[in-house]
Specification:
With 406 residues, this protein is α/β, with parallel strands linked by helices. The chain contains 14 helices and 17 strands.
Length: 406
């Protein structure tokens, strides 16, 4: 069966999935958590094969860390599932209730999007996050993970699919695409797939720092392959002479390679090696223990630089200056703007969303970490008693548009 045929079949299943009770959807999540616990050895064995293949292929250690699914990752997956179960049902919420006229009432009600296609990076825990969020939000899902974790994803998907089926969710509400060629097929299914989410690490995250190095070290080294890890640090010239050597020392001690402008390199000359880079290089994404350095005159120059080269993912300013912080948070056009904290907080789980299918840098229909609320849309329900538009067009009747308490 082709991806299009699978998507067409799934389109027919999606109303049944949308109608599944919250009890059934939560039961599916509980069963997934249990399946992970009971099949940990099988999962870890498959992951060991993926890691061995990655090492043989010469993938970087940072990327290999991203591919690893160990006890810690499993614990986090299970914790995420259990938290997701506690979250309010995003489906069936009355978002608006308005009496247009007597006995003519309009309701805006949240509903699942329908069929969602998700193409995500080679990270096994993403398979659990994406599938569980789609289940909780009542959506059918076509899932395509990275080839580097094909074995692990295969085991995880089988467990998730079986758990969903055992809980009573409709057969075929989840499908795993495995071939690279299926990505193009999925992209072409614009009639069958209601929303396509590319979840990847093409992020460019920047920082300014003027009083501490700890946040930057965390943002770069805590998980360098993550999409919310720092890639560039912009340093105020007012403090660069004192601060940049301190930052360079802290980063190099953690194995971080430094790249930067000539101005930054000259400040560190004889102390720390810096690979020179041009202005256009600041769009580079590393996903590794490499960082870019540049000096700026003020917060305006920093914001302009970020808006020009950034991916609009997450950006942070580290400052004690309230006015500079407010300027930064207003003028930087990113999904997440932070003050005095690590960009690694940009995560659906850490926001209390249960998990995330990805982080949207666009402005429609969701922005930032996309959790449950980003996976539902709404429909309008209008309940009348035989009203016709002609009466209102002629002036016989008038709308009074009275908002009702929800």
């Amino acid at each position: 069966m082709t991806i299009r045929e699978e998507a067409q079949r799934m389109k027919l299943v999606s109303p049944e999935m949308a109608a599944a009770s919250i009890e059934i959807r939560n039961d599916a999540l509980a069963r997934i958590a249990k399946a992970l616990e009971e099949n940990r050895d099988v999962i870890f064995s498959a992951n060991a094969e993926d890691l061995a293949a990655a090492e043989e292929a010469g993938l970087s250690s940072a990327i290999q860390k991203r591919l690893r699914y160990d006890e810690t990752k499993m614990r986090d997956s299970i914790a995420g599932l259990r938290e997701l179960m506690t979250l309010q049902d995003p489906v069936g919420k009355i978002l608006l209730a308005r009496e247009l006229d007597e006995n003519l009432t309009l309701y805006r009600v949240s509903v699942p999007i329908g069929v969602i296609g998700v193409i995500f990076e080679a990270r096994p825990d993403a398979m659990v996050q994406v599938a569980s969020l789609c289940i909780k939000s009542g959506n059918c899902a076509i899932l395509k993970g990275g080839k580097e974790t094909a074995r692990t994803n295969g085991v995880l998907f089988s467990l998730i699919r079986d758990a969903a089926r055992e809980a009573g969710l409709p057969e075929g509400c989840l499908f795993q695409a495995t071939a690279h060629s299926e990505i193009d097929e999925l992209l072409a299914c614009d009639r069958e797939v209601d929303l396509l989410i590319p979840r990847g690490s093409n992020a460019f995250v920047r920082y300014i720092m003027d009083h501490t190095k700890i946040v930057i070290v965390d943002a770069k080294t805590q998980y360098p392959a993550a999409c919310n890890a720092v890639e560039t640090v912009l340093i105020s010239r007012k403090i660069a002479g004192d601060f940049l050597p301190v930052l360079a020392k802290a980063l190099t001690e953690k194995g971080v390679k430094l790249r930067g402008t000539k101005e930054a390199a000259d400040l560190l000359a004889g102390s720390y090696p810096v690979d020179l880079m041009g202005e256009d290089d600041f769009a580079t994404e590393y996903n590794d223990l490499v960082i870019s350095l540049k000096l700026v005159s003020d917060v305006k120059e920093a914001a302009d630089h970020i808006n020009r080269f950034g991916s609009h993912h997450t950006d942070s300013i580290l400052t004690a200056d309230d006015a500079a912080a407010e300027y930064f948070m207003q003028r930087v056009d990113s999904a997440g703007v932070y003050r005095n904290c690590s960009t690694r907080f940009a995560d659906g789980y850490r926001y209390g969303f249960g998990a995330e299918v990805g982080i949207s840098t666009g402005k429609l229909h969701a922005r930032g970490p996309v959790g449950l609320e980003g996976l539902v849309t709404y429909k309008y329900r209008l309940c009348g008693t035989g009203q016709i538009v002609g009466d209102y067009a002629s002036g016989k009747k008038q709308f009074h548009h009275k908002d009702l308490k929800i």
